[in-house]
Specification:
- It is a single chain.
- With 408 residues, the protein is mainly alpha-helical.
- 76% of the residues lie in helices and 0% in strands.
- It folds into 2 domains: 192 residues, Growth Hormone, Chain: A (Up-down Bundle), CATH 1.20.1250; 190 residues, Up-down Bundle (Growth Hormone, Chain: A), CATH 1.20.1250.
- The longest helix has 41 residues.
Length: 408
Amino acid sequence: MKRQNKYNKNQSTKNIFTFKGKFGNYAGMKPEKFQTGRVTLVAFSHFIHDVYTSFLSPLLPLIIEKLSLTLSQAGLLSTVMQIPALFNPIIGLFADNKGLARWLVVLAPTLTAIPMSLILNTSSYYLLLVLLFFSGISVALYHVPTPVLIAKYSGEKKGRGMSIFMTGGESARTVGPMFAVAAVSFLGQDYFYYVMGFAMLTSVLLYFTLEKEEEKTSIKKNGSLKASFNEIKHVLIPLSGILSARSFMHASMGVFLTVFVEKETGSLWLGGAALALYEAFGVAGILSAGTLSDRIGRQRTLFWVLIVAPIATLTFVFTAGILKIIMLVITGFTVLSTTPVMLAIIQENAKNNPSTANGLFMMISFAVRSLAVFIAGIIGDLAGLENMFIISAVIGFFAIPFLLKLEH
């Protein structure tokens, strides 16, 4: 099939079952082979980087005790760390225009690790806020340009590359808290900052291993946010609709699942086990979806997971026993698996400003996810947790009309 830079406007909706999802070459370049070593290395750096970003939650009790924080002060910490995500498009534009994607990827693990490794050594709440804000900036500096390198190293198999990359980050959510607790137990709070050494070694490894991509890609300079948006708006707008519809299931399962299971069973342990099972199969879904989309098409993959996810969520709510566990597994596998497919779509359409395009996508993703968590909480307060899950699943079906718009 001849490759396309945009969707053919004359395609009918039935092509969602057959369309191969080839959106064009990266930055107008000839297709390259899948570079397993470099993709794996960047995914490993994603794992190392996100291990450090996961430190706040497990160490929060120690921070609250040391600085005598209120719960509202503690809650503000995570918010401050996420604020820089609003500047993702600007960071992407800077990376594109200056050709600094490789340098940002190389330096970001260390730049994130330094403030996150010092959070137990601060004597002031306001200094802690500064450290977390700078850590949030570094998080954005890493996550905006990295998919651009993954797209380059993946050649025609961008879905597979994005799946491996996202698996690194998702795995860090499990390992990071355990690593933080083990490190503080072994080193003590005063010497916890020693853990930043792992990130520094990772940055050195990246520096000597990754190509100088800014000298090898044909990205146009002096781009703009408007030009980048116009280039990808035919996919960004429908994908934003999909993100919005899916985000309610993501919020309900990711944030409130433990509370829901604990209220149903009376066991906090079962609630934690349910969340662990959900996240574990979410990693499996992330690892599988991108590779599958390379073979059967981006739209076709998204169609099936977006149909199955709300059905599995509804069935999870209304069943019990082994069937409930099976539905939880299927929900985790499908709800979390859309991200690598959508990242591949963005990169296949962002020929001139790939980092800026990814920044726009990530900013929208952050905004809709944050809003969905807030609204889901309100629904849960007013209608109860069970109805919150039901409403979230029903909203999930509204992703399908936006998916069909991807053809135009």
